[in-house]
Structure formats: structure tokens, C-alpha cells
Write a structure and sequence with these properties.
Belongs to the FMO family. Helix content is about 15%, strand content about 20%. The protein is α/β, with parallel strands linked by helices. The protein has one domain: FAD/NAD(P)-binding domain (3-Layer(bba) Sandwich), CATH 3.50.50.60. The strands form 3 sheets. The chain has a 3-stranded parallel beta sheet, covered by helices on one side. The chain has a two-stranded antiparallel sheet with strand order 3-4. The radius of gyration is 21 Å and the shape is globular.
């Protein structure tokens, strides 16, 4: 079983900020951030984006204080930030601060339990937490329902 100092669940805005800040304060700590998505971003992960999606935030109001959203992101003052730009910004934040080695994507946390002692069953130690993670298997994409022809005898709901 792997032992770490800190587990963070979720690679959205707050999870990434927690990871970066904890690494600054405790540079020798072993930290792992787990997320079930295949990319960072939380609600802004690539699989959750769709054409035309924009945040309800404007340039300058949705960024980390230590990593400004500069002109390279292509958002003009007064414009709402497009979803793909928010995702790109969060990915660049991860890259800029070298956070990716601590991040495990496609990993769902299914259980978090308190364990007595140090987890080895002998009762000595300060206790801790145990997480159980799973690597999700590819799921078939849902298909739209088949429509019933207009003059069909099938019941309608």
C-alpha cells in the first residue's frame, strides 16, 4: 500500500490551488491529487466543455493571484472567458508550477476511511486515512432514444 502525506480529491480550481500551496509550504511532502476526469479543470475539464460555453466571469476576475490570465489567452477586457480558455489556463497553471507529477487523472475515489494506528494493524501510531481509488473502464456513450413513427401503435409518454 502506498503511503502519502496528503491526498487531495479534485483537480478543479481549489484542488490545484491546494496542491500548489501545500507544495510551497511543505516542499518535501508526498502529495497526490486524484481526479476521475481525464484532464485537469474540474467543471472545466475537456470532457465537460461544449461549443459556445463561456464562464459568467470576465477577464481579470477569474484567475489565481500568482498567475495572471495575460493577453496570450486571447480574451479581451470586458469579455466573458470561454470554457476552453478556462481549461487552457488551468492546464498552463499546472505546467507552470510543475504540478503534473503529483496528479493522477482517470482515478475515481470510491472510499475514504479512517484507520486506527498507522494502518498496519498493530495499534501503534497516530492513525490516518485510507483511500480506495479505481481506474474507470471506458463506458459506452449513451445513444439518443429512437423516435417512434407518427402512426405507430406504440404508447406515447
Amino acid at each position: 500500500m502506498e503511503s502519502v502525506d496528503l491526498v487531495i480529491v479534485g483537480a478543479g480550481w481549489h484542488g490545484l490551488a491546494a496542491l500548489k500551496t501545500y507544495r510551497q509550504v511543505h516542499p518535501t511532502a508526498t502529495i497526490v491529487l486524484l481526479d476521475s476526469a481525464s484532464s485537469v479543470g474540474g467543471v472545466w475539464a475537456t470532457q465537460r466543455l461544449y461549443p459556445g460555453l463561456k464562464s459568467n466571469n470576465m477577464l481579470g476576475t477569474y484567475e489565481y493571484s500568482d498567475f495572471p490570465m495575460d493577453a496570450s489567452f486571447g480574451v479581451q477586457p470586458g469579455d466573458h472567458i470561454p470554457g476552453e480558455v478556462v481549461h487552457s489556463y488551468l492546464q498552463r497553471y499546472v505546467d507552470h508550477f510543475g504540478l503534473m507529477p503529483c496528479i493522477r487523472l482517470d482515478t475515481a475515489v470510491t472510499v475514504i476511511e479512517r484507520v486506527d494506528g498507522d494502518g498496519d494493524g498493530d495499534g501503534d501510531g497516530d492513525g490516518g486515512w485510507e483511500t480506495i481509488q479505481t481506474q474507470p473502464q471506458p463506458q459506452p456513450q449513451p445513444q439518443p432514444p429512437k423516435s417512434t413513427p407518427p402512426n405507430s401503435s406504440s404508447p406515447r409518454v
